[in-house]
Design brief:
The chain has 6 helices and no strands. It is mostly helical and 122 residues long. α2 crosses α5, α4 packs parallel to α6 and α5 packs across α6. The longest helix is centred in the N-terminal third of the chain and has 19 residues.
Amino acid sequence: MDLQVARVAASRATAPERSGTTTVEARGRVQEARRRAGLRWAPTPWSVNAEVAGSHLRQGALRLPTGVRAPLDRALERGLLTLRGYDRVLRLAWTMADLAGVDSPGHDELGRALFLKKGLIS
């Protein structure tokens, strides 16, 4: 799986036109993502993804399927990630799923999280 990220030209970054997302829209997405996370973690001591124990993400009821975790597992086995880094990628993938409005991270969310962590996609 490859994730392509386009470079932004300076002319585009400094152009007077606005992006397609307004501050109000972005705030709404973040509020909805936090609501989703809050509902998911309500029966636990945590309220946001950043607080969740890594062991809970790796071994708990919401453990991601093997097929989804495969790139992350390979990065850990190759020594490209520490266990702490592995957990951080999982937390980020859950946040991306919340922002996308999906119930659980899939290949896209995990791939993006892995890319953002270290540019690690295999």
